[in-house]
Fold these 4 entries.
Entry 1:
Amino acid sequence: MPLEILLSAGNENERRYLLPLLDLLAKRKIRPVELHGDRGYYSLRHEQTLSERGIRSRISRPRRKGEPIPAGTKTREVWRGKNDGSPHATRKHANAGRSNAPTPG
């Protein structure tokens, strides 16, 4: 059950709705202790405002290009065409380099 809902266009940046959404929750006497979000919500303004409101920010921070992943960070391997034994991987590798064009003959 959602606590509050804001609707926007699908191609709009959601970051602009974070603080107004927290304001709506505050009007309903809902005061979060911490806020989790992906790195798309990160901004210095959000970090400062959350701190002023006594909310612990758990928003992921974006890394700069070339910056290493911090030690202890959980990572996951993403399948990018590796043959992991799945039928799709096998089929993809079996057809690698083949053209769909008819062969002369």
Entry 2:
Amino acid sequence: MGTNETTGIVPQTRWNDTLAIRPWTRPAGSKADLVSPVAGQVVRSDGTVLSNLTFNWTGDASDASHNLGSSDRKLMDGSFALINPPRSR
């Protein structure tokens, strides 16, 4: 999705996109996997870079529907599945 495309329930621009993630090569990731609008950084819709914000994720599966067309369709292109949720302590 392009940096200036507007989409979402609350329409905004500058969505943070990751590199393509496949479960057989990368079952986990972090902000280092962000490729746009600023590589390796979380960016708010107003363009502010949140350099102190960090996050990590893991997933049992990921997939992409390869949606084409509107910005809303592109936004819903990828997904993670949590098949074996962690147990509460």
Entry 3:
Amino acid sequence: MNKFAFVDCSTVDEALGQLSEGAVVKAGGIDLLDLMKDGIVSPPKLVNIRNVSSLRGITAGADGLQGVQQVLELEGGFTVDRS
């Protein structure tokens, strides 16, 4: 496995500030680490969002599903159409 930086974030803004070219958002699970161990992916940085309390759970609101939208925006660098 290649060397990588691991950043533990506690807010969405902190996580967004850590995203850079090649950074990967990690929200739990071990699939990503398995891919890294097998040499399939080798991101230079993992941005851990597991401790971002505003991303815990999924709530339905007037703007749709909250939590899911924020994770998608962090991971893919895109916004969810809320119209």
Entry 4:
Amino acid sequence: MKHLIYIKWAFLALVAMVLFILAAPICLLFVWKTKGIDNDYSKTTSINIDIFGNENFYPLWNFLWSKGGYSFGIKHETMSSVFGKKYLERSLNWFGLAMVFILTKKHCLNSIT
């Protein structure tokens, strides 16, 4: 019986992900149209998504980008901050270093909290 609860939560997580994928770009365009592109919504949203990704997908990020050391998944921390810390301690694999290159080293180091 307990496994049915886990199936329910997995289903609800999938529904939430689909709703997010559908709603996020529409909401972003709506805010740009009604408030203009130069508002804090984009910045706040990108930081919140960054923190959400770090907190919720850390098993994948640690597997894909890490050689040990400081871990993804710390509450209230952005992925950019983790990339910066891991860059300094040299615990990123080649794929993690590619992500630092994409985000820029300056951004990752400036994001350290």
